[in-house]
Amino acid sequence: MDEHLEKHLESRAEAEAIERLLRETESVRSEIRQAAASVNWDALPTVIADRALVAGDKAARQAPDSRSWPWLAAFRMKPVLAGLAAGLVVGAAAMYLALRTPGVRDGRDNAYYASGEFLDRAELEMARRNTVDYLEKSQYVLLDVFESAGEGPVVPASVRSERARDLLQKKQYLNGQLERFQMAKAKAICDQIEMLFRELAQIDDELPAAELGRIRGYVEERQLFLKINLVKKELQSGV
Amino acid sequence: MRKIALTICFALVLGLGGAAVPAYSQAATDDSLFREAKLLVFDKSFKEALEKIDELIDRFPSSPLAGQALFYKGECLSGVGGRERDALRAYKSYIKLDDAKPSLVEESEGAIVDLAFDLFADGNDSALREIESRLEHPNKVVRYYAAYKLSLVSDKKEAAKAAPVLSRIVESEKDPELLDRARIALLRVSPESLKSAEERKPRTVTTARLLRIRVRKAGMKEPAFSLNIPFALADLALSAMDEDDKAAIRKKGYDINKIMNELAKSKESILRIAGDDGTVIEIWID
Question: How many CB pairs under 8 A join A and B?
């Protein structure tokens, strides 16, 4: 190797240039190490996230003040250090974006997804709400029957029949959910009401007042309103 | 005549029909059997009710109530347990009747779907055809219910066959209850179909927007809870969140409803709540 360098001047000059470059690189490396050591890497994401997310204003998005980063100003942007600084900026920006839109990280950012466990909980919540809704609407229909039997306004029989049919359809969906989530008390009262609606749904013509009065007696005898209210309260309080 | 018969029948069903005067003795007998059977069904005494109905059909095959009795026979057979196939036959016989009542036909179709679902769960693979064949039913009530039930079967490939009907519900249905059911069913069987269906709808405040929730436990890189769903299900999603997570949000003094309103109003805003135990909850919409 030494022999070769002695004979070829061009090669020797090249070797000397490489040695100089290595020496300079080493000196820069130590500066980089020194600079990197001054950064609290654990706290950096929090600092960036806090600035980006909590503040949320333009000031937080501005480039950091050089006074708060004295180690950066000290290097006067030498080319290699400029690269390091650019790397940090890009890294910080990437982290900002990652924290600003956390979904990107799991690679399924725009697709819909939810776990089976979550969907079960959502269905349970839906069953609770829909049962309360079903019971409330049932009360209205039954109250209408009550009013028809007395002196109150009468909803046309065809409308009542249509409402009863709607409620029967809703009940169909509730059946499976109430069984699945073991909401036995709610199911029992909903089943009883269903029998009444099944009858009302079949009668499009006006019922004589006497017959409506009998329905009233039937509902009162079985204390359906009291049962409906109790179950509704239980469901609303999440019992 | 039909009206009078129905009125008398209804009065009898309520157990208060003693004053009603039967037109002829046979009517009184089949009526009374029918009334007793219905009351027994009401009390869920299916075995006893079934005996009354069988007696009615055997003794009075030409009674105007014999047809309707078939529906209640299906109810009783479903209720007693272990006779699902017989129940299926009873309902099918009822819907074939010329004088079958539309509301009871709808109920029978739904009951057939339910029974087929149970039979499939018990290992009877062919039962699923009863549900699949109803995906094209002319009555949308039947069609929708068949799709909803099919989405719940354990065989994911079979369940995915419900996706086209469920997608149509999402695209065209106005009833919020049906819409939410269809959305959740699609999230189960074909989330990509839900996304397509939502995107085909005209964009409003609540459609084609994505609600994202991430819950990260302290020191964990991957979220412990991750959710991407249509914004329309946001309220339901937040209600269905884990109680511990909800408690963490409440502890921080946040009101869920307020959060959702704020997020809905401001585009691409993010809410980041850090719990005392290091849990971080991120909620945002885009």
Answer: 136
